[in-house]
User: Which sequence fits this backbone?
């Protein structure tokens, strides 16, 4: 087993003093995780998948409402169409392709079955369904990675959200949150450095007074570990070639342009969410 200190150093690029904490396989798996986008041409056994779905369903859920559904896309033609709609060709041949959906339909149907009005048509309910689906997605990922699989979530399924919803025959009040491709890894990927905990974990009150300095340090550490090659610089036509191209420059360039996806509100309203 790796050492906890080494895992934290790999995750943050700086040493952390945690000598009092015992390492176990769960911590090791989570701290060492990374996304995988290339898979062996080898099936994932159905029994294993059933266990992984059970793990996804073991995630906590707001008010025990469990407002999500998982579409397991097994049909080759559908996978291909999904890959096209998401502009993510490699998912067409991924052994396991899932779409995690927020599901506000089941609650409405249950209210109807029990002869009660549904009185929670709010933006908050939409968010609960999205959060439930996201937590279930992560529970699936942790379990799948513990079993030796590699995974990658795919928000690109929302680029053409209407077409993806039609492809998967999602009814009203069900929306795709993210795809997930999984399989036996056919690539070795490094653990990527995360933001310093000082920027993410706040004590008693929000405080980002040190943001500029912390981001500079993070940029330097990431650049030392995994420099972004010159050909990876984004929007050079707009911003020119940077001498130092750190994570924050990359992120700022990326965020400077729209990602599309302007239709979400209209889509959700058309699909029966009030969003008030
Ligand atoms: C909700 C969500 C959506 C994502 N969507 C995509 C995607 O559409 N395409 C992709 O290649 N990776 C996607 N990713 C993977 C991230 O790019 C990846 O997690 C991030 O770069 C950090 O790398 P790591 O997971 O290896 O630590 C997504 C991750 C999450 C959590």
Assistant:
């Amino acid at each position: 087993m790796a050492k906890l200190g080494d895992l934290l150093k790999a995750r943050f690029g700086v040493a952390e003093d945690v000598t009092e904490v015992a390492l176990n396989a769960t911590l090791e798996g989570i701290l060492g995780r990374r996304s995988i986008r290339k898979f062996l041409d080898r099936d994932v056994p159905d029994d294993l998948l059933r266990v992984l779905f059970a793990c996804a369903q073991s995630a906590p859920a707001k008010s025990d409402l469990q407002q999500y559904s998982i579409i397991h896309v097994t049909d080759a033609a559908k996978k291909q169409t999904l890959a096209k709609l998401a502009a993510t060709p490699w998912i067409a041949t991924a052994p396991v392709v899932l779409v995690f959906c927020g599901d506000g339909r089941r609650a409405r149907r249950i209210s109807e079955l029990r002869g009660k009005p549904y009185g929670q048509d709010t933006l908050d309910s939409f968010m609960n369904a999205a959060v439930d689906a996201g937590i279930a997605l992560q529970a699936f990922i942790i379990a799948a990675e513990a079993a030796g699989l590699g995974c990658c979530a795919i928000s690109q399924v929302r680029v053409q959200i209407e077409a993806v919803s039609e492809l998967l025959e999602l009814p009203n009040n069900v929306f795709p949150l993210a795809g997930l491709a999984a399989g036996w890894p056919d690539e070795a990927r490094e653990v990527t450095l995360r933001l310093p905990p000082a920027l993410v974990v706040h004590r008693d009150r929000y405080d980002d007074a040190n943001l500029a300095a912390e981001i500079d340090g993070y940029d330097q550490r990431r650049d030392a570990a995994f420099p972004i090659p010159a050909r990876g610089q984004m929007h050079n036509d707009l911003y020119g070639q940077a001498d130092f191209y750190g994570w924050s420059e990359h992120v700022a360039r990326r965020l400077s342009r729209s990602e599309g996806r302007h239709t979400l509100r209209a889509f959700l309203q058309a699909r029966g969410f009030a969003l008030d």
The two ends are 50 Å apart (CA to CA). The first helix runs from residue 4 to 12. The chain has two domains: 33-189+261-270, 197-255. The chain has a mean pLDDT of 96.
